[in-house]
Design brief:
The chain is built from one helix and 16 strands.
């Protein structure tokens, strides 16, 4: 069993019958009254984020979450298929479990999938991906006041804001956690 003193970022535990992940926490000791821990929690099944305070001494049940190394294979329109790197078993994953990660998936991309009670609940991608720009508007000369950005569509179909000097066919580096442009990639 976990106690409030064990709470830290990334801790996974079971509360109200669902698995939760600690996103943020802060130990608060008010001048008057008992100390407590203020947390921001994410439901691993639904993605819902809530804020909750825990009194000192409360206990939590550990949750059994399995992390597997997989490789993205293909999408059949309904599910995304990943192959386990150890057992070579294929795991179909629905789009709801993937969330925004769908925008950055490339064939043969290594990933980690979290399983809860035998079913996939979320995916962890590499922090950065390199994608080619398939379409962007040409930059207009003299349109360069203050870090001007334009929309660009990458090979996966996602839209990213890029600087004006980036052109069609350019390979760029994108942060998968934020979806932001990080730079051009020289080949």
């Amino acid at each position: 069993m976990y106690q409030t003193s064990d709470i830290k970022k990334g801790l996974k535990f079971k509360m109200d019958g669902a698995p939760w992940n600690v996103v943020e926490f802060l130990f608060v000791k008010p001048g008057k009254g008992t100390a407590f821990t203020r947390t921001k929690l994410k439901n691993l099944l639904t993605g819902q984020v809530i804020e909750r305070n825990f009194r000192t001494g409360e206990t939590f049940e550990p949750v059994d979450i399995e992390n597997r190394n997989v490789t993205y294979m293909y999408n059949d329109g309904e599910h995304y298929y990943f192959m386990d790197s150890e057992s070579f078993e294929q795991h179909p994953v629905g789009e709801t479990a993937l969330g925004d990660s769908v925008n950055w998936l490339q064939d043969n991309m290594p990933c980690d999938i979290l399983f809860y009670e035998g079913r996939p609940i979320s995916i962890d991608l590499p922090n950065y991906v390199e994608l080619e720009i398939t379409y962007c508007e040409p930059a207009v000369k003299g349109d360069t006041a203050n870090n001007a950005m334009k929309s660009a569509t990458v090979s996966t179909g996602a839209t990213v804001l890029v600087p004006l000097f980036v052109e069609n066919g350019t390979t760029i580096k994108i942060d998968t956690r934020t979806g932001e442009y990080c730079g051009r990639v020289s080949k």
